[in-house]
Automatic annotation (TrEMBL):
It comes from the Bacteria. Belongs to the pyruvate kinase family. The lineage of its organism: Bacteria, Pseudomonadati, Verrucomicrobiota, Verrucomicrobiia, Verrucomicrobiales. Residues 353-453 form the Pyruvate kinase C-terminal domain. Its EC number is 2.7.1.40. This is Pyruvate kinase. It comes from Luteolibacter pohnpeiensis. One of its GO terms (molecular function) is potassium ion binding. It is an enzyme of class 2 (transferase). Pathway: Carbohydrate degradation; glycolysis; pyruvate from D-glyceraldehyde 3-phosphate: step 5/5. Keywords: ATP-binding, Glycolysis, Kinase, Magnesium, Metal-binding, Nucleotide-binding, Pyruvate, Transferase. Pfam families: PK (PF00224), PK_C (PF02887).
Length: 467
């Protein structure tokens, strides 16, 4: 049975060659992510071209996800990293302010000083360094280093529990968004999404410049958790961004929060990505730790749509081995079954009820295959959310972008195909295609679910056909 859990790999210096991109696709990557916190525009545009070419050569459907920086703060560019000792004092200053002490860096948000208070905790690089804010001035803060470590350029700064008054989309985000639209990004992710309005703002800004990407909302702090239902309902996809989330909440809460989000995404019918530190040790080691194997396995068991690798593939030594590890672990756990949240999906309209009936029918047929004919991908995603158990689950769509976007959805193998004007012909083409691809044999039962039978006849329908 093909792997159901999909995989996103972040591109970076370790994986930027077209050859390597091809290797990662061959190994099982389904989506590539560009992290706009690090990627230069020319580079991101070139990576998109490389992904498109490598995918085309393989006739693979590979979407590209642009991950916007969002209202997050980072250290400035340092000439060389600071080696910090316990008790050192570090200065974080506004962009226009001169350094007053040697251990000084700018931050990319001049309003920081107004948002924080003496005594707040400041976390750098996803928890690698802990500091206490000791003094807050108009244009700088001074922090006491509580744990020794290295502080590099453009490192994340978290202030657990502090609400930053940054706009949902910064000036940089607007520029990055314009690039993403120009590159015909398939997915655009908003970072530090705080509420549904934030998701809407991103979608509207994208649509205003004619973007057609789907929106990923990254849940990474306590505020997002307070508004989680509304965010899930507004976004196309949710990302459990555990890097920041694991710092912004108590770490012992992280597994519970992850499961809550995955469960709620199922109930409300929104796809979900589990991200960050899945195989962190493989940035420098050729094999995963036991804890990482268990973590990846858990996310696949929760039947998340997609897992995501970051540093493992962007800067790691073993990108291909990381993909192979995810494939092995996910495939193995899928053989032994999943958590079954597909049963919790709230069926809110007739179309979703038809989807449920189709899945029940397909699952009951030995060797049955499930096919969705879909124009916008909505029905295909509904069906996927019910987590069908069939040996094959395929979406056929005439739309090139929808076809790529569906590659992120759990379990779906998407194919691009023009629909004929009459339904018999379309069904015949579907059967022939599956047989030609070796995915069905003549006579294999195929359950076809669709909300459009022809250009002139829209109706929710389930058809049982034999290839
Ligand atoms: N396009 C790039 N160019 C240069 N360095 C990059 C690029 N992408 C990633 N990196 C480096 O790889 C590290 C891991 O980045 P990645 O985006 O994979 O993970 P991340 O955890 O989301 O990163 P961050 O938290 O810094 O945004 C980054 O901290 C950065 O140092
Ligand atoms: C992916 C990301 O931004 C995070 O995990 O924080």
């Amino acid at each position: 049975m093909p792997r159901k859990t999909k995989l996103i790999c972040t591109l970076g210096p370790a994986t930027e060659s077209e050859e390597m991109i091809g290797t990662l696709i061959d190994a099982g990557t389904n989506v590539f992510r560009l992290n706009m916190s690090h990627a230069k525009h020319e580079w991101a545009a070139e990576m998109t071209r490389r992904v498109r070419r490598a995918a085309e050569q393989r006739k693979a459907q590979i979407p590209v996800l642009f991950d916007l920086t969002g209202p997050s703060i980072r250290t400035g560019d340092l000439e060389k990293p600071f080696e910090l000792k316990l008790g050192d004092v570090v200065e974080f200053r506004n962009s226009g302010t001169a350094p007053a002490i040697p251990l000084s860096t700018t931050v990319n948000y001049d309003g920081l000083m107004a948002d924080v208070k003496q005594g707040n905790t400041l976390v750098v690089d996803n928890g690698a360094l802990l500091m206490r804010i000791d003094s807050v001035m108009e244009d700088r803060i001074l922090c006491y280093v509580k744990t020794p470590g290295t502080m590099g350029s453009r490192r994340h700064i978290n202030l657990p529990g502090v609400r930053l008054n940054l706009p949902a989309l910064t000036e940089k985000d607007h520029k990055d968004l314009a690039l993403a639209v120009e590159c015909k990004a398939d997915y655009i992710a908003g970072s530090f999404v705080r509420d549904a309005a934030h998701v809407r703002e991103l979608r509207e800004a994208m649509e205003a410049i004619d973007g057609e990407a789907q929106i990923v909302a990254k849940v990474e702090d306590q505020e997002a958790m307070k508004n989680i239902d509304a965010i899930i309902q507004e976004a196309d996809v949710i990302m459990v961004a555990r890097g920041d989330l694991g710092v912004e909440i108590d770490f012992e809460d992280l597994p519970i929060v992850q499961r809550r989000i995955v469960k709620r995404c199922h109930e409300l019918g929104t796809r979900v990505i589990v991200a960050t530190q899945m195989l962190e040790s493989m940035i420098s080691n050729p094999t995963p730790t036991r804890a990482e194997v268990t973590d990846v396995s858990n996310a696949a068991y929760e039947e998340a749509d997609c897992l995501m690798l970051s540093g493992e593939t962007s800067v790691g030594r073993y990108p291909e081995r990381c993909v192979e590890a995810i494939v092995r672990i996910a495939t193995r756990i899928e053989r032994s079954g999943g958590l079954g949240y597909g049963h919790n999906v709230l069926l809110r309209d007739e179309r979703q009820k038809v989807a449920r009936a189709a899945v029940t029918l397909a699952d009951s047929l030995p060797e049955g295959r499930l096919v969705v004919l879909t124009r916008r991908g909505v029905l295909a995603n509904h069906v996927a959310m019910l987590r069908p158990k069939t040996a094959g689950f395929y979406a056929f769509t005439p739309n090139e972008r929808v076809c790529r976007q569906l590659a992120l959805t759990r379990g779906i193998t998407p194919f691009r195909m023009a629909f004929a004007t009459n339904i018999e012909e379309t069904i015949k083409r579907v059967g022939e295609h599956l047989v030609a691809e070796g995915l069905a044999r003549p006579g294999t039962p195929i359950v076809i679910v669709s909300d459009i039978l022809s250009d002139h006849f829209a109706a929710n329908s389930i058809l049982l056909h034999h290839a």
